Structure formats: structure tokens, C-alpha cells
Amino acid sequence: MEQGLVFRNFRQCLILWTGMLLASECHGYNLEEVLEEIDSRSDYQLRGNGPTFTRWGRSECPPTSEKVYNGYMSGPKHNFGGSGSNYLCLPTNPQWGDYSAAFNNKRAVIVGVEMETSSGKPYPSYLQDHDSACVVCQTINSNSILMVPARLTCPPGWTSQYNGYLMSEMSTANRRRTEYICYDGSPVQIPGSGSRENQAMVTPVEVLCGSLDCSKYVSGRELTCVVCSR
Q1: What residue stretch is flagged as signal peptide (predicted)?
Q2: Rounded mean pLDDT of the chain?
Q3: Nearest-CA neighbor of 185 among 218, 152, 156?
């Protein structure tokens, strides 16, 4: 019998059994098999049913979420005009459509993003020039996702997916503007990277107070961040 039909019919029988009403229609079911199906369906309902987020700097999702795919952090070339301003997590297994192999200077460009950690704070200096990993995750049993800057813990009632430091492209005259992202506090190295292409870099974000309250946001300090779900 088709599994879905077994499940629906058995639910009806459970209602009868719960009410202490035994019917001939309930005979012939393998209780162990049906309970296994109920368990598998319950597990499916518990996993991967919430909003998605990108975990920058890591290739695996936290236990409170489920991996969709992992890949390479990518974005606009720092000294080119145009292109996008956001970062993307490009999969490790791209699929190509109709393409031209020749480089066209009238197209947009996307490049890999390297870590800039030469100062040794807040990330160790050995991560300098290594390409950034990323993974797209789907939360479990949640409806909302939120990145909170300048915090390591989530607001009450929210679950922490991961925390780390606020990152963006370097802030110098010849650099492109990018989005601010929450980069994992314990990033991994992509094997074989570290060649220092310097096409695009991501670096911790420091506070420059003045318009920001200097008693709370101290100039020169790197900002933390946390990604939360509920």
C-alpha cells in the first residue's frame, strides 16, 4: 500500500483506538513500520523548515540549522566600477549555460574574497590572504533570522546560530563599497588558498566615534556580531 495512504488510514485508526473503539478496518497494519514512518515524518517537520542565512568564513552549518550548500565567498573587484555591492556564496560545483570564454570588459565582474588579518586582531595573522569559505544554511523550527551588530549574544527569546566580527571591504580611497556581514569568529582556511591575489578583501570593521557615542562605541575597536533565529 502507498505509504502516504497507510499513514492517513493509520491516523484514523489511532483515533478509533484512542477512543477505545476497535474496528475491522484497523487490522492488517504493521505497527512497527507505521511508527517508523511517523518518526521519519516528524523528523522532516523538525528540520530545514525555516529561513536561510549565510555563514561567512565556515563550510559547515551550526547544529541549529541544516546545510543547503557550501562554497566560496565572492564579490566585486575592489578597484573596478560597476558590478554588484553585495557578497555572494558561490557553490563549489557551478553549472554553466551558454557562455563565451573570452573576457569582455563591458560585463560585470565577480572575484573571490580574501581575508585581511595582518594585524592579528581579532583574527590570527596566519589567515592573512586566505580565500573565504561560506555555507548557506536553513534554520530549524524558526520563522525569522536576524544579524545583530556589536553583540555576541542574541536578544531574549532568540537562538544564536553563530557569532563573530563585523566585516566589509577595506575602507580606503580606491576600494569599492560593500555590505557589512557577520564573519564567523572561528573561520576555516580553504585548502590551497593564500596566494594573495588582492582582487577583493574582507577586513574587520572598526569604530570611528563622534556621531556615534564615544562612551559606548570606542574608536579603533573591532565590532562583534551575532546571527540569531526565532
Answers
A1: 1-28
A2: 81
A3: 152
Measured distance CA(186)–CA(124) in Å, rounded: 10
58 beta partners? none
pLDDT of residue 116: 83
Helix ranges, the chain (H): 3-18, 31-46
171, 127, 140, 157: which is closest to 42 by C-alpha?
A: 140
- Give the three-class secondary structure for 25: helix
Closest CA to 148 of 223, 66, 70: 223
Q: How far apart, in whole angstroms, are the C-alpha atoms of residue 82 and residue 177?
A: 11
35: region left, alpha or beta (phi > 0 left; psi from -120 to 50 alpha): alpha
Burial of 96 (0-12, 13-18, 19+ CB in 10 A): exposed
- Shortest CA distance to 53 belongs to which of 130, 188, 148? 148
Q: Which of 63, 71, 69 is nearest to 140 (CA)?
A: 63
Question: Which one has a higher pLDDT value, 35 or 170?
Answer: 170
Q: Is the dihedral of CA 165, 61, 71, 138 positive or negative?
A: negative
For residues 88-98, average pLDDT: 95
Percentage of the residues of the chain whose pLDDT score is greater than 70: 75
Sign for the CA dihedral angle at 173, 176, 208, 58 comes to: negative
Q: Which residue has the cell 562605541?
A: 217
Domains, the chain, with CATH or none: 3-46 (no CATH), 52-229 (2.170.240)
